[in-house]
Amino acid sequence: MDLTYTITRLDPGDFDLCGALWDIERRADLASRFRRELLEGNRTTFLCRDGEAPLGEVSLVRYTDDPDYTVENRRLYVSRLLVRRDVRRRGIGRALLRTAFETARAWGYAELSVGVNLDNFAALKLYWEEGFDSILYIGEDGDGRFVKLLKRLGKLEGL
User: Fold this and answer.
1) Would you say residue 1 lies in a domain?
2) Where are the alpha helices (DSSP H) in the chain?
């Protein structure tokens, strides 16, 4: 299957499109928080689509109550990088991340953080390859062991 995709900023009114990627009804608490953050301007979500079909999403969050994840005017949190299972390993996650990098630079941020489960090897590899090369914290929560990673944003790649 050939993909011709576009990545656009999600309008808060189109939030339900994310339901094609994750179960927003089953995770109603999370969906409610994300929708509120979108409306308040704390979360910006980018949606990757092939035509109208959602393929993936990523969000940038300006403020969390965790100082490892966000630092005012310096560090944004990369939240919910998701790619539909049937289109993984085709560069969509990388393209979504790079959109997040470009956006963070344009907004004047110097760093990005992300949290990832230690058993998610594909995600760990992608984040490492994309420059998340500093470990902020290793811990455990209800989902298992995880790591918080940091990427320092430099000049735009290729310039």
Assistant:
1) no
2) 28-40, 92-106, 121-129
